[in-house]
TrEMBL record:
EC numbers: 5.1.3.15
Highest taxon of source: Bacteria
Name this polypeptide is given: Putative glucose-6-phosphate 1-epimerase
CDD domains on file: D-hex-6-P-epi_like
Organism for this UniProt entry: Parasulfuritortus cantonensis
Isomerase among keywords: yes
Length: 306
């Protein structure tokens, strides 16, 4: 569908479709509760701000690259049908192909509370089929308002069991990574990717003074990002997800990447974000018998620090 057809079929008072950066099509949402943009490539949410916040809650790099087949630095990349490197094929893209594949819009709705809901379905093609030869449907439902809810629904339409890894690789806007703390993971086991994949246990809050790349397993806990600089707390509540990934590249790694940018304060965009990703990875990958369906749901919200 082109932009005109999308607007005719799915336009809502708070939702319109438009062509934007990289000549890609975006769902642009602006309602009483909040605003967001969602790129049809990847069903990738590229920013969300509740109306009561002056700063966005979902962060996007000012140097993000937009274009066919490019993954966008920031927002809510969808990792599916695997998380991290592919188990056996190193040539396959890290975090799967969902974030660089076109999705189609399947529906839209304005809810009674004024929130806007948009549904998307991943469109399989020869490339995705070659990398994942399974009849599996992947849908994303975004509900945008004063909070942001994302449901990632996998349906196994195959005749055999299918195993998937997945994550909503969300970049959250914070004042300064050196002052932020992530709580909710105390006592959880994690795989430390910056220490040779060693298994460790979290003690207290996650604090940052260097690169952090950790996959916490077997945890369904809500996580909070405490941000004294912006004076707010970001709440990340999930269901259907047993893994939480916490990632900051820190300075050296970020500077090797072309798409982090200088950030608002000019001290590096990497200082102004942290990824707290909700999903099912490593020990927690999901096996779906023929005909089964699985939903990962995450709700993001922000509140003032007391
Ligand atoms: C995290 C991984 O989820 O994503 C990191 O744990 C990775 O290892 C990071 O570096 C970013 O990945 P990408 O492919 O978006 O650059």
């Amino acid at each position: 569908m082109n932009v005109t057809e999308l607007n005719e079929h799915y336009g809502q008072p708070g939702l319109r479709f438009a062509e934007g950066a990289g000549e890609l099509i975006y769902a642009e949402i602006d309602n009483a509760g909040g605003s967001a943009r969602i790129c049809l490539q990847g069903a990738h949410i590229v920013g969300w701000r509740p109306k009561d916040q002056t700063e966005p809650v979902v962060w996007v790099s000012d140097q993000a690259k937009y274009g066919p087949g490019k993954s966008i630095r920031g927002g809510v990349p969808v990792c599916w049908p695997w998380f991290g490197p592919h188990a056996s094929e190193s040539a396959f893209p890290g975090h799967g192909f969902a974030r660089t594949t076109m999705w189609q819009v399947t529906g839209s709705e304005t809810l009674a509370d004024g929130a806007t809901r948009v549904g998307f379905m991943l469109m399989p093609n020869d490339r995705t089929h070659a990398q994942f030869p399974k009849a599996c449907r992947c849908e994303l439902i975004a509900t945008v308002g004063a909070s942001l809810r994302v449901d990632l629904v996998t349906s196994n339409l195959d005749t055999e069991t299918v195993t998937i890894g997945e994550a909503l690789h969300t970049y959250l806007r914070i004042g300064d990574i050196a002052d932020a703390a992530v709580t909710g993971l105390d006592g959880s086991e994690y795989v430390d990717k910056v220490d040779g994949g060693r298994r460790k246990h979290q003690a207290g809050a996650v604090m940052f003074s260097g690169e952090v790349d950790r996959v916490y397993v077997n945890t369904e806990s809500e996580c909070l990002i405490e941000d004294p600089v912006l004076g707010r707390r970001i709440r990340i509540a999930k269901s259907g997800g047993r893994s939480t990934v916490v990632w900051t590249p820190w300075q050296e790694k970020a500077e090797k990447m072309a798409d982090f940018g200088p950030g608002r304060a000019g001290q590096g965009g990497w200082r102004e974000m942290v990824c707290v990703e909700s999903g099912n990875a490593l020990d927690d990958v999901v096996s779906l018998a023929a005909g089964e369906r699985h939903t990962l749901s995450v709700i993001y919200s922000a509140e003032a620090l007391a």
